[in-house]
Design a protein that fits this description.
mainly alpha; 3 helices
């Protein structure tokens, strides 16, 4: 019932602050990746953005007409 020393193996992973190659894979061929994503999902993007742009345009036009109506 004595004390036995049990070796504990642990590995600590850390990134060096001077290592710049970690994020390079994200930026490599970025225009190609963006084009690929847009060409795959253009219908979904259109269905999302069209109502938003339409609403924004309507509100801006309405506000401009309201400003002009109060001039006279």
């Amino acid at each position: 019932m004595g004390k036995q020393i049990v070796p504990v193996k642990s590995v600590v992973y850390a990134l060096s602050p001077f290592q710049q190659k970690i994020m390079s894979g994200l930026w490599k061929d970025l225009p190609t990746k963006i084009h690929h994503k847009v060409s795959e999902n253009w219908i979904s993007a259109t269905l999302l953005l069209a109502p938003l742009v339409g609403t924004y345009t309507y509100v801006q036009t309405y506000l401009e007409k309201e400003k002009l109506a109060h001039r006279y």
